[in-house]
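Run log // design_07
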């Protein structure tokens, strides 16, 4: 990435280290080429055997780095890094034994040790590597022109330099990890704040709607109930039909008033508060039959089980809207059938009538149908509306498990 971003905390926090790895590859290649040049042109001793051996070991070291070390540097402490160092340390010592200029490759070996191993292991491997180099110098003191005191001094200086370099590298890597953790925590905090803000906005909107419902719909239904009571009181006892219609209107107004109050209090719909979903849907269809004089039936198949509150509310609302549509639009209908099917793959609700049907082009229009489709989509379901067989309309809702 081009710069630090809260959406990519790993890159933002580890740029200080991981971004430099390509430079380490280039440095390794540069030192390898320089070492090869010095072996060919600068080292003393029998020119053929030792130089060929040194070049062969250098090729092995480069190949081992390409196969394991280059990949290990892109990770934190890992087994691949241990495998790489298990081969790189003896190969570096062998290269130094074959040619003094092979010591150049230790400038990459020590940083690799500290980058790939935890602190204690890095110290142990660094000491072991310096000791192996000193042992080579002691064994080949004649060829290298070094005496024991000089070898000890060189080894001590090399060890101190390697430890100082290692501490510096360790601090850089640890700072990168700390920055990565801080950025991750910052990103998590920002996500939590966004969620809290969203919930606060939703709560504020719900409270606003609750006030509006209380001040408009609830008050309006209360007024309708009072008017219906007055109309019923003024109706002749003998006018049974009118009184029946007034009773139905009164029950409808009371139900809608209860719905409005439930919305204000953020409670489940009254139909689901004290009854199961099959009972609630069966009650809706039973009341529909009583109010419309249509023949209506309701069937439950499979083993009923509790759904999530949102899913049950969606199926209830879809049933209410479907019944309202049949009441208003199903010309010539004489029969309505509702089926609630519980299956292993999910729950399916089907509501069909035997009316004259509808124009398929109108199935996606209208506020009621659009609202049903939105509700079903929000809970991961599928709503389909089409012709029933042999006639009429079929509404189907499929909710996956």
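design_07 sequence
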């Amino acid at each position: 990435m081009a710069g630090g971003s809260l959406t990519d905390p790993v890159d933002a926090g580890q740029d200080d280290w991981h971004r430099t790895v390509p430079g380490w590859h280039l440095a390794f290649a540069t030192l390898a080429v320089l070492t090869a040049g010095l072996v060919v042109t600068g080292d003393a001793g029998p020119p053929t055997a030792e130089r060929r051996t040194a070049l062969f070991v250098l090729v092995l070291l480069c190949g081992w780095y390409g196969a394991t070390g280059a990949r290990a540097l892109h990770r934190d402490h890992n087994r691949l890094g241990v495998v790489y160092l298990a081969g790189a340390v003896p190969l570096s010592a062998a290269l130094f034994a074959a040619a003094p200029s092979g010591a150049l490759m230790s400038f990459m070996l020590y940083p690799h040790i500290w980058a790939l191993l935890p602190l204690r292991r890095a110290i142990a491997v660094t000491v072991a590597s310096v000791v192996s180099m000193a042992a080579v110098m002691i064994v080949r003191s004649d060829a290298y022109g070094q005496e024991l005191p000089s070898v000890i001094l060189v080894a001590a200086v090399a060890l101190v330099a390697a430890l100082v370099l290692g501490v510096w590298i360790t601090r850089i890597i640890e700072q990168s990890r700390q920055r990565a953790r801080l950025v991750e925590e910052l990103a998590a905090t920002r996500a939590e704040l966004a969620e809290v803000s969203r919930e606060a906005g939703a709560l504020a909107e719900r409270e606003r709607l609750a006030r509006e419902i209380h001040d408009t719909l609830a008050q309006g239904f209360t007024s309708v109930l009072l008017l219906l009571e007055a109309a019923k009181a003024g109706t002749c006892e003998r006018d049974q039909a009118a009184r029946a219609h007034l009773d139905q209107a009164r029950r409808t107004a009371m139900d809608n008033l209860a719905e409005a109050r439930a919305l204000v209090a953020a409670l489940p719909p009254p139909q689901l508060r004290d009854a199961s979903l099959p009972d609630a849907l069966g009650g809706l269809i039973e009341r529909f039959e009583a109010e419309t004089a249509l023949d209506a039936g309701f069937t439950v198949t499979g083993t009923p089980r509790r759904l999530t509150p949102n899913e049950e509310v969606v199926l209830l609302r879809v049933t209410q809207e479907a019944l309202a549509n049949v009441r208003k639009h199903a010309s010539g209908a004489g029969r309505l059938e509702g089926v609630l099917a519980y299956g292993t793959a999910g729950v399916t609700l089907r509501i069909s009538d035997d009316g004259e049907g509808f124009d398929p082009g109108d199935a996606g229009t209208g506020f009621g149908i659009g609202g049903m489709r939105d509700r079903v989509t929000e809970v991961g379901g599928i709503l389909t509306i089409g012709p029933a067989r042999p006639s009429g309309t079929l509404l189907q809702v499929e909710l996956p498990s």
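Confidence is low (pLDDT under 50) at residues 1-15.
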